[in-house]
Amino acid sequence: MCGRYVVAYDPETLVSGFSLTRVVPFPKRWNVTPQSPVPVVYETREGERVAETMRWGLVPQWAKDATIGHKLNNARADGLFDKPSFRRAARRRRCLLPASGFYEWQAPAAGQPAKSPKQPWYITSADRGLLAMAGLFEAWRPSEGAEWVLTCCIITTEPNTLMSPIHDRMPVLLPPAAWGPWLSRAEQSPAVLAPLLQPCPPQLLRAWPVSRAVSRGTAEGEALVQPLAAAAPP
Predict the structure, then answer these.
(1) Each residue's pLDDT tens digit, 66-81
(2) What is the DSSP letter of 232?
(3) Rounded Cα gap, residues 47 and 166, in angstroms
(4) Which of 2, 73, 140, 189 has a CA 20 to 30 Å removed from the CA of 224?
(5) Please, what is the end-to-end C-alpha distance for the chain in angstroms?
(6) What is the per-residue pLDDT for 219?
(7) How far apart are CA 54 and CA 137, in angstroms?
(8) Do β-strands 149-157 and 94-99 pair in parallel, antiparallel, or remain unpaired?
(9) What positions carry a catalytic annotation?
(10) What is the pLDDT of residues 85-136, one digit of tens each?
(11) What three-state secondary structure class fits 2?
């Protein structure tokens, strides 16, 4: 899964990095939690590539209320095009969630006390560039005539060899060559799209343990991503 990530870049970075025609301003954050507004890259009906903020936690268009979004911050790549909560968005509303990096929590190793706290790790790009997490988005409103609410989720897959000692899932991280077909509204074939949802090569990432302070949803600041020895105590 992916339950926390980092948006430590400027909006202008997205314009050049993702060839955008429009971007909505957003603040830097080092501990983005589900239900937060996050920058999302997608393709408009007119074929423009833009970035807007959406609430992290997908609310399908058919949902009776928005509370389902608290359970749908992630979508598993396997079966994505068949599951009722995701199949509509998987064909028509795909997106990218740009990230400076993401966090994952490692369970206690064998031999450690069962109640030992999990150790958070920070995972980022080996070349210090942005990660493009594959995602879905939806437009939902509580009633006819009400304002539309844009929501999104991150797609996860099996871990690569870097991630497998840390956790059994990881975000799908798409290379630039895959952005075009993934964002294209004209492309709706699972046969074309599903093969894109693979673990990225491990050499593209770096990972290190960080302070358990990040486990608090209210914690913020650049110190959260520093290697454990240099991080502030939890």
Answers:
(1) 999 999 999 999 999 9
(2) P
(3) 39
(4) 73
(5) 23
(6) 96
(7) 8
(8) unpaired
(9) 2, 104
(10) 999 999 999 999 999 999 999 998 776 776 789 999 999 999 999 999 999 9
(11) coil
Nearest C-alpha neighbor of 178 from the set 192, 166, 163: 192
Residue 6 to residues 31, 133, 220, 230, Cα–Cα distance (Å): 6, 12, 10, 18
Q: Is 79 left (phi over 0), alpha (psi -120 to 50) or beta?
A: left
Domains within the chain, CATH numbers bracketed = 4-229 (3.90.1680.10)
- Are the beta carbons of 151 and 102 closer than 8 angstroms? no
- pTM of the entire predicted model: 0.94
At residue 51, the 3 state secondary structure works out as: strand
Residue 178 token pair:
């895959």
**Helical segments of 96-206, H only:** 176-183, 190-193
The Cα 193–Cα 206 span in angstroms is 27
Query: What is the rounded CA–CA span in Å between residue 187 and residue 34?
Result: 28
Structure tokens belonging to residue 223: 């110190």
